[in-house]
Amino acid sequence: MAIKTIVVGADLGESGHRAMRIAIPTARATGATLWLVHASELGLEHAWPDLPIAARPAAQALRERLKGRFESSLQELESERKRCEELGLNCQTSCEEGRPWETILRTAVSVNADLIVVGDPVGAIGLPERLLGSTAERVVRQAPCSVLVSCGRLPEDDAGLRIAVGVDFSAHGIEAVRWARDVANAIDGEVALLHVVPHPITESMMIKEWPTVLEGLASAARSRLEQLVVTEGLNPDTTMHVLDGPVGKTLCNASADIHADLVFVGCRGQGRLRGIMLGSASQYCLRYSPVPVLAVRP
Question: Domains of the chain, with CATH numbers?
Answer without folding.
Answer: 5-149 (3.40.50.620), 162-296 (3.40.50.620)
